[in-house]
Amino acid sequence: GSKDVAFPRLNSIGFWIQPCGWLLLAKTAFLRPQFWRYYDKPAFFSPLLDKSKVRLFSELDETGFNFSKSLKLYDIEEFFMFWKHRKQIKLKDYTDFSFVPNKLTFWTSILSYPESFWFAADKAVKARRKKVYFTKCSNRTLTMSGWAFITPFSSNTKFTGVGSQDIAVIGVIFTGISTTISFTNLLITRRTLSMPGLRNRRVLLPFITIALFLTMRMLALITPVLGAAMIMLLLDRHWQTTFFEFVYGGDTILFQHLFWFFGHPEV
């Protein structure tokens, strides 16, 4: 019988926090970029494997008379940046195979000719289908532990991606905060602002209303448990706690109990 909820501002806060949680969950797809293209991008991982960073900053800064001396450290010729005359080629039958225009008559010859467009296009097609091994091993943001957050996969950064998995956990925490604010507001509204007949149970309520009240009371019990489990996951991942690490005395099944303590009543 009330015209509004007991705390209208809390109602607005609880309503707008929930889309933030869903947006964070959607963001996990964009933190897994390899699923959105047909090729692997090793550009991010190649500098991580480069062991010559000090050499790049210290040796080539001699742009004066010692520039050629710096280039020699890399086994680069002095004519590397300049044109030079063509050497006399003394290979047997070189001109018979390299300077014959008739060889470009057939399609197979054109396809294998290095200066043609189709040679580069053929290489691009082959490179597109080829997977680079170390990018697949290094890009751990592709890995998540599923909607049930199975431990120890979700509690260890060695098994799941730093970024996508963390944002999924934070999204669940945001959704739990929104749910807690909303059901607390509705329960207080029902307790304090309902009409006298409803408060004294002299009015019969529809079954859907009774079901909503029971659901909110169950959420009051189970939502903080799920939020605590998600916070424990983050602590295990980044702050060296061992709630779910069996090797260090934790219990892997503990998270399943906490998660399904929320999951079964919620379902």
UniProtKB/TrEMBL annotation:
This is Cytochrome c oxidase subunit 1. It is an enzyme of class 7 (translocase). The chain crosses the membrane at residues 167-188, 208-235, 242-262. GO terms for molecular function: cytochrome-c oxidase activity; heme binding; metal ion binding. It catalyses: 4 Fe(II)-[cytochrome c] + O2 + 8 H(+)(in) = 4 Fe(III)-[cytochrome c] + 2 H2O + 4 H(+)(out). It is a multi-pass membrane protein. Gene3D superfamilies: Cytochrome c oxidase-like, subunit I domain. Keywords: Copper, Electron transport, Heme, Iron, Membrane, Metal-binding, Mitochondrion, Mitochondrion inner membrane, Respiratory chain, Transmembrane, Transmembrane helix, Transport. Belongs to the heme-copper respiratory oxidase family. It is found in: Mitochondrion inner membrane. Pfam families: COX1. It comes from the Eukaryota. InterPro entries: Cyt_c_oxase-like_su1_dom, Cyt_c_oxase-like_su1_sf, Cyt_C_Oxase_1. The keyword Electron transport applies. Residues 1-267 form the Cytochrome oxidase subunit I profile domain. The keyword Kinase does not apply. GO terms for cellular component: mitochondrial inner membrane. Its main location: mitochondrion. It comes from Colpoda sp. CBOLN070-08. Pathway: Energy metabolism; oxidative phosphorylation. The gene is cox1. One of its GO terms (biological process) is oxidative phosphorylation. Its EC number is 7.1.1.9. Component of the cytochrome c oxidase, the last enzyme in the mitochondrial electron transport chain which drives oxidative phosphorylation. The respiratory chain contains 3 multisubunit complexes succinate dehydrogenase (complex II, CII), ubiquinol-cytochrome c oxidoreductase (cytochrome b-c1 complex, complex III, CIII) and cytochrome c oxidase (complex IV, CIV), that cooperate to transfer electrons derived from NADH and succinate to molecular oxygen, creating an electrochemical gradient over the inner membrane that drives transmembrane transport and the ATP synthase.
